[in-house]
Amino acid sequence: MKELTLVTGAPANGGSCVAHHEGRVVFVRYALPGERVRVRVTADRGSYWHAEVVEVLDPAPDRIASLCPIAGVSGAGCCDVAFATPEAARALKAQVVANQLERLGGHRWDGEAEPLSDAGPTGWRTRVRLDVGADRRPGFHRYHSDELVTDLRCAQLPPGMLDGLAESDWPPAAHLHVVVDDDGARHVVRTMRQGKRTATKVVEGGYEAVQRVGARSWQIPVTAFWQAHRGAAGVYSRLVADWADPRAGATAWDL
What we know:
Elements: E1 3-7, E2 11-12, E3 16-21, E4 24-29, E5 36-44, E6 48-58, H1 86-105, E7 127-132, E8 138-141, E9 148-149, E10 175-180, E11 186-194, E12 197-204, E13 208-213, E14 216-221, H2 232-244
Parallel strand pairs: 4-6
Antiparallel strand pairs: 1-5, 2-3, 3-4, 5-6, 7-8, 7-10, 8-9, 10-11, 11-12, 13-14
Pfam families: TRAM
InterPro entries: NA-bd_OB-fold (IPR012340), SAM-dependent_MTases_sf (IPR029063), TRAM_dom (IPR002792), U5_MeTrfase_fam (IPR010280)
Protein name: TRAM domain protein
């Protein structure tokens, strides 16, 4: 694919920035606003292109060494803006939300994206799914690709969460669901399609994980949805309760 030198503009969803080339919009991944970058076009969508950074010629002040050792052009599709300071990354996300609200809903918002908790920019994820390739090794997908990255050092994960999994011999096309629950226990469940059914096997721990919000606790299947960020469920619960402002005897519906 062709290479271009561009100057990036506003942030877009998914860790990209908007640039322009001869009247065409180019969504540039792995760039920050205001950078001059050399990019490789990765997809032609007719009226717009997708591209990824090959070289940063003039870096933005907020660019740092990536917090994630496996994210990036040649790596996994995780940690979209690990190359920006945490403060800058939150500001970019706030700009994306503000743009969507105004463009799609006509609502002007000038709020800020706040940290969910004091967990920090790394080590906050408690649930993850790995896919197993033909070489029987688990990994993360590259961005919008079936290809796997078998280096499991994603910065979102706490130390030890995936210990021992890379060394095991897994069936090709299997999925590994890994959870560290609110009791600190690790659970590993393997699923894979067998004809029209999905076979499930508990490899470590149990099929259900303990999750807590406030004084309540639940047994949630490892393969089911729960907020991946260790602080998210509690923050959302408190926020909704604050907005709802329930009175004694009131009934709340969870939709």
